[in-house]
Specification:
- By secondary structure, the chain is mainly beta.
- Helices cover 8% and strands 49% of the residues.
- The strands form eight sheets. It has a 22-stranded antiparallel beta barrel. The protein has a five-stranded mixed β-sheet with strand order 1-6-7-4-5. It has a four-stranded antiparallel β-sheet with strand order 28-29-30-33, with no helix packed on it.
- Strand 10 and strand 11 form a beta hairpin.
- It is globular.
- The N terminus is likely disordered.
């Protein structure tokens, strides 16, 4: 597949180089044909997406403390679920498009930045793979859920596509300068509530009155460990953009620089990020040759907190102080054994963890992209495209324990270096022709794409106890190539047909299975433009469209699999989508309805193999299928439209039903998932035949007459008199059945007020914090230390982590943001615009869930990181 680069070079010379050599022979007075109004309408309809997509413009984005651009469209796209990992700002985001489709595959959509396909691989030290894109540099975001465009991207598009366009919508002559700066104040809205020192002391003295060793571990102070590691923060963000057009409008350009300082509410955690970019789009030869040069970069310093500090703040002994009265252990209090040495089995002081571990990462990322579009002279219907780009990331990090730390002799110091490169080459030809006599427009395009990913990682680990260093090097290269083509046909701006085909080859498969062909078809009908619709004057838009497409998500990391089927091949996703777009009252009320069915067959599963045939018990192979079906309804209305006052209201509802079929043999119940705290290798969920993904698989709790759960008493499901794994049952689901989004905006003179929110219904969450941090008998550990517990309605004596008592209704309503701005009129500077704005992020949450946050991606809540609300004040100026 590496030879594909030579193929690309050959095609480039033929399709780009040779036509350019003829430019000097063309007439300088040549003028392209002008388009008629009907032709413009026809071309617009030809580009209509007959699948399912959502386009968001920059005017729809709300300012916020956004490190990653995915926060701009969270809760705004029907069918797309985004969940942030609980923790510091800019952490990893989990995506899910129209339900769960696979057991072991990823669920991240394909992200395309200005035409370049980036990779979503997790890289050490990077909080989120999208953090190098500054949200303020984004012009529009398009989310594609179904249709031929998924097929055009073949092996990487089964989870949908998110296209992000950056730069500037302005192409005017001269220079335009834009500045946006804000200051935000993040406050702790809610956090876990462990026992106070007095309550903890009373419980220990009552329950362990005869255990002098436990009593001796009590101190005389009162420490709220969460208050010691969390605090409110002030952060700032600055963004400067310069764009314009040189050389008589033939040289559009865009330059920007951004700085983000994000100190997290947990101590010793901060992000300092510099983003920058330059984009040039010169045109030559009467717009026949268009050049695009795009460079983006990020230089970031990530200071990450010690992972166990948040958990230890819940459990560490609240009757002991933060600091000791001597210099031992760096001056921090630590639990000791009877002989006065550090108790290595006890919990560690959370403040010491944060201050005595340096977990620092430097991340440099650069995306360079070059493109050419040549419209052939004397044949302007034919154009040729060339795109070459590279996305390169360099990461260096270290995890260093202080020599004064109590745990130093039992720890390891590590140094990491990571180089990641994503190269993409693409060439294509397009033929667009409008036949005026036939009122018909056709568009034909074909192309070749090659992409390669390479990663080199070095890990240097030094064992502080044994005194030696272990260096590991790891390299991975994978890639794919694709030939693709599409044909579009529209007639009288009413009838549309769209065909697409993709032939893909991916390097991770055996040679015989590396090639796959994906087809797609879509049809559309603009009913509103039919003559018989003229009498329906209240209808202003009515389109019906249907699409069928096939694609795949071929990238499974096989490097961690010891055994896999030599016939392993592509899991194939099949989308069918029926949509209706409508508008009433001159587009005062608009909306769309989509009905979809998404199946994926030949899933990756781990099948049991008898030991006499294979040294491993499981092998990765293709088996079974998944099905997601549902509907999405979106409405937007302009309720009031007056000169000085307007009110807009919009929202959506999305329903999804999910099931898996034939993914395992009948000799097992299903595949375990949903790792829970409290036990090594303990899981609370299954993927099972004829059930939805992430269904809870636990014991059914028995309750007394007043509704209190009875400890260690569950329903014997098979009535064999023995309580074991076979008595668990398939219960509630972690996936929401219904998703809602809503937004409203009021405009009065220069004031603007907007509110956005989201809701989920039908989802359940396993409260892992309650299950793991409430049992009384865990308060004194036999290894000689005390553990605090959190307040709860029920405190069992011993942990009951496999009880369905901890599965709670997690339906919720969230207000995402409340935005208020005022735009100034400056009579003395008519070309100058100034806006002052304020924003409140995550101000309200309504839910019956007893934990902190019911919005949990996999349905397992085991993270005690507090909820926050951010208050922002900013100014935006352009001139």
């Amino acid at each position: 597949m590496i030879n594909s680069g030579f193929k690309l070079l050959f095609f480039s010379i033929l399709t780009i180089g040779l036509p350019l050599l003829t430019l000097a022979q063309q007439s300088e007075n040549y003028k392209p044909d002008t388009l008629s109004k009907f032709d413009i309408q026809e071309k617009a309809f030809l580009n209509f997406n007959a699948g399912s997509a959502k386009l968001l413009k920059v005017s729809e984005f709300q300012p916020g403390v956004y490190v990653s651009p995915d926060q701009l469209f969270k809760g705004m796209v029907p069918g797309l679920e985004l969940t942030n990992e609980q923790g510091p700002a800019g952490m990893w985001t989990q995506f899910r498009m129209r339900g769960i489709s696979s057991v072991f595959n990823r669920s991240v959509p394909l992200f395309i930045i200005d035409g370049f396909m980036i990779d979503d691989a997790k890289t050490m030290g990077m909080r989120n793979f999208l953090n190098f894109i500054n949200p303020l540099d984004i012009v529009e975001i398009e989310v594609i859920k179904a249709g031929p465009e998924l097929t055009l991207y073949g092996a990487r598009a089964a989870n949908g596509i998110v296209k992000i366009r950056t730069g500037s919508e302005e192409t005017r002559r001269g220079i335009q300068i834009y500045y946006d700066g804000n200051v935000s104040f993040s406050t702790i809205k809610d956090k876990m509530k462990p026992f106070s020192a007095n309550k903890f002391r009373n419980i220990i003295q009552d329950r362990y009155a005869d255990n002098q060793e436990a009593l001796n571990l009590l101190g005389n102070t009162s420490t709220d460990w969460q208050n010691e590691i969390y605090d409110n923060r002030v952060n700032t963000n600055h963004f400067l953009k310069i764009n314009g057009n040189l050389n008589q409008r033939s040289m559009p350009y865009n330059l920007f620089y951004g700085y983000t300082q994000q100190d997290d509410i947990i101590n010793s955690s901060a992000l300092n990020r510099n983003t920058f970019g330059a984009q040039f789009r010169p045109v030559f030869f009467d717009d026949h040759l268009k050049v695009r040069i795009n460079v983006k970069g990020m230089v970031a310093d990530n200071q990450l907190p010690a992972e166990s500090a948040a958990q230890n703040a819940l459990s560490f002994n609240p009757t002991q102080p933060v600091y000791s009265q001597n210099d031992q252990y760096g001056g921090y209090y630590q639990t000791e054994t009877n002989d006065g040495s550090f108790n290595r089995f006890a919990l560690t002081n959370p403040v010491a963890l944060l201050n005595q571990i340096d977990n620092n990462w430097d991340v440099n990322r650069y995306l360079t992209d070059f493109g050419l579009n040549y419209k052939v002279h004397n044949l302007p219907e034919l154009s040729v495209d060339l795109q070459v780009g590279v996305d390169q990331t360099s990461v260096s990090g270290e995890y260093i324990n202080s020599k004064a730390a109590a745990w130093y002799d039992y720890s390891t110091n590590s140094r990491y270096e990571n180089e990641y490169k994503n190269e993409m080459y693409q060439i294509g030809a397009h033929y667009d022709k409008y036949f005026e006599s036939l009122k018909t427009n056709i568009s034909v395009s074909t192309g070749f794409r090659f992409q390669q990913f390479a990663e080199d990682m070095l890990t240097d680990t030094y064992d502080n106890d044994m005194g030696y260093s272990d260096i590991e090097k790891h390299s991975v290269t994978k890639g794919h190539e694709a030939f693709y083509g599409q044909f579009k046909f529209s007639y009288r701006s009413r009838y549309l047909m769209h065909f697409a085909l993709n032939r893909t080859s991916v390097s991770i498969y055996d040679t015989e299975n590396s090639i796959a062909v994906f087809p797609a078809i879509a049809v559309g009908w603009d009913i509103y433009k039919e003559p018989f619709m003229r009498s329906f004057n209240r209808i202003s838009n009515l389109k019906v469209h249907f699409s069928y497409d096939e694609s795949s998500d071929a990238y499974y990391n096989l490097s961690g699999i010891d055994r896999y089927d030599i016939d392993l091949t592509y899991p194939v996703s099949v989308n069918k989508n029926l949509g209706i777009d409508f508008g009433f009252f001159k587009q005062r009320l608009t909306g769309k309805v989509d009905f979809y069915n998404k199946t994926r067959h030949d899933l990756y599963v781990r099948m049991f193999v008898p030991n006499n045939l294979n040294t491993n018990s499981f092998i990765l192979t293709n088996k079974g299928r998944s099905e997601n079906k549902g509907f999405e309804i979106e409405l937007n209305s302009k309720i009031i439209e007056q000169k000085e006052f307007s009110w807009q209201l919009g929202g959506y509802i999305a329903f999804n039903s999910n099931k898996f079929y034939d993914i395992h043999d009948n000799n097992i119940v299903g595949y375990s998932t949903g790792l829970i705290p409290g036990g090594v290798g303990s899981h609370a969920q299954l993927y099972a035949n004829n059930h939805s993904g992430q269904v809870f698989y636990l014991y059914e709790q028995v309750y007394n007459s007043d509704g209190t759960p009875i400890e260690d008493l569950y329903i014997d499901q098979n009535n064999d008199g023995v309580m074991d794994y076979n008595d668990r049952y398939l219960g509630k689901n972690a996936q929401p059945q219904y998703a809602f989004g809503f937004a409203t905006q009021f405009n009065y003179k220069q004031f603007k007020l907007s509110i956005t929110g989201m809701a989920r219904y039908g989802n359940y969450v396993y409260n892992g914090l309650d299950a793991n941090y409430t049992a009384y008998n865990d308060m004194y550990h036999s290894m000689g230390f005390l553990q605090n517990r959190i307040n709860s309605d029920i405190h069992f004596n011993n942990p009951q982590i496999f009880s369905d008592y901890y599965v709670e209704n997690a339906a919720f309503i969230k207000i995402k943001s409340i935005h208020l701005s005022y735009s100034f009129d400056i009579p003395t500077a008519k070309s100058m615009n100034m806006q002052v704005y304020s924003n409140i992020l995550d101000p309200f949450l309504i839910s019956e869930y007893s934990g902190l946050d019911p919005e949990v991606y996999n349905g397992i809540d085991d993270n005690p990181y507090p909820l926050t609300t951010a208050y922002m004040l900013g100014v935006a100026v352009s001139f």
